[in-house]
Amino acid sequence: MGLIIVANRAPFRLTPEGLVPAVGGLATALLPVLERRHGVWVAAGEWREKGQAATPRESQVRLEQVFFPEKEWQGYYGGFSNRVLWPLCHYFLERVELRREFYQDYQRANRRFAERVAEVFREGDTVFVQDYHLLLLPRLLRERIAAKIGFFFHIPWPSSGVFRILPWGRALVEGVLGADLIGFHTPEYVENFLRTAAYYGYQVEGNRVRVGERWVRVEAHPLGIDTGRFGELSQDPHIGLHARALKRLAGAERLILGVDRLDYTKGILERLLAYERLLQSYPQWRGRVAFFQIATPSRTSVHAYRELKRRVDEVVGRIMGSFLREDWVPLRYFYQTYTQEELAAFYRAADVALITPLRDGMNLVAMEYAYTTEDGVLVLSNLAGAAEYLKEALLVNPYDLDGMAQALDRALRMPEGERRERLSALKARIEALNVQGWAERFLASLEEG
Ligand code: GDG
To answer: 66 near 140, Cβ under 8 Å?
Structure first.
């Protein structure tokens, strides 16, 4: 049976040789399944040239692009997706910009996706829709085609009290309930969604929502990482050499690492302040610890992201101004994108990973670090979906600077026995969440249900 995946972004990147599969995240999770089923990926258009340039190489997958007029794209993507839904679902309510024209563009864009999927659809195909950009799509598809429809939401579904802030909340819930199966990372988001549906008057029984004659199932399907790949990276001798070079560059007994897209939900500012607090409150670490923060450029066309970059630059400068010595660089801030191999070298060099988003649907970096490091310590925000599964991490409240400084001190001093014990438990949990099984499990539930 055929499979159509619909997501805002395509799982490819453009190289001089043409489009090649991207590494990480959704591409790793979904491309193998799609290849086995000779499927189609429908995404917003990034590559205008028709023909060769937009045909993926080294892949059996067909790419269908949906193009938008510039204004509609801005309203749908930069507007409703990233200035309404993204901040709302991560509880940044003061950042939500409730503008009617954003919603109108979001409706138009979702309709455009629906038209394209309907063209591509063949009888018997399953359609699997991804994420917050496409909440209206399941219902629009149901009106057009007789397909099994799955939907996965990669970010937190907020409490119903927060969701209700959206003047279009009812229509969005109606839209997503066009699916047969709706998936989230954690039981908490499932619970929040069911309460939201109940608020809008739907009958809810167990984990099912009644829509007319249909029952829509809502399930937790936690996404993990490619453990095979990260297992290899953790053993690769070249990466080992690079890791040692990074450790030398750090020039300190202990290295702390942060890795994120530069996004206000990731808690980068608070994390820098917590590190500053560590150096103030535990002066014994001055000269003995270094902090590397990698921030990957993201959504640079959205004002809030440029503003965040300015503030991070400022705080980095201030910490350097207060603590830098001739023989010690307390902090290095890398605003750039790395290859996965380079990233793995950072993971292997770091004694502690400080992953402290203020909210996060799951957070795969936490899993990548714990799976790749040999004997490091994971300090993880209790507001990331991953905290639900990675119980052996040191869990912290990412808003509590003193608490984070204290946890850092503990992580830096943690005896080897405890480190290894926690890490082997974490690795076993991550193994069980392996991404390879994720799509199969979701699709099996969708197609059998
Ligand atoms: C969303 C949700 C949910 C980062 N910098 C580089 C790089 N990365 C890779 C990491 C990791 C991925 O990007 C980031 O994934 P996260 O899960 O941490 O966060 P989001 O991007 O916000 O993802 C999140 C996820 O969707 C999946 O459902 O977990 O909660 O917000 O894989 O390694 N990769 C490379 N170079 C970089 O510089 N190669």
So the answer is: no
Q: Quick one: the chain helix, strand, coil %, rounded to 5?
A: 50, 20, 30
Q: What local confidence, expressed as pLDDT, does residue 52 receive?
A: 47
Confidence band, pLDDT 50/70/90 cuts, at residue 12: confident
What was the ipTM of the complex prediction?
Answer: 0.98
What is the CATH code for 227-432?
3.40.50.2000
Catalytic: 360? yes
Give residues with Cβ within 8 angstroms of 49, minimum separation 6. none
- Indicate whether 23 pLDDT > 90: no
How remote is the CA of residue 260 from the centroid of ligand 1, in Å?
Answer: 7
Q: Is the CB of 176 under 6 A from ligand 1?
A: no
DSSP codes, 33-78 = HHHHTT-EEEEE------GGGGS-SS---EEEEE---HHHHIIIII
Q: What's the 174 CA to ligand 1 centre distance in angstroms?
A: 29
Residue nearest to atom 34 of ligand 1 (CA): 340
**3-224+435-448 adopts what CATH topology?**
Rossmann fold (3.40.50)
The tokens for 420 are: 């290894």
Mean pLDDT, to the nearest integer, of 313-326? 96
Cα(436) to centroid(ligand 1), Å: 17
Q: Indicate which residue's Cα is closest to atom 10 of ligand 1.
A: 365
pTM: 0.96
Residue 50 pLDDT level (bands cut at 50, 70, 90): low
Q: Is the CB of 8 under 6 A from ligand 1?
A: no
User: Is 131 an active-site residue?
Assistant: no
- CB 43 near ligand 1, within 6 Å: no
In the chain, where are the structural domains located?
A: 3-224+435-448, 227-432
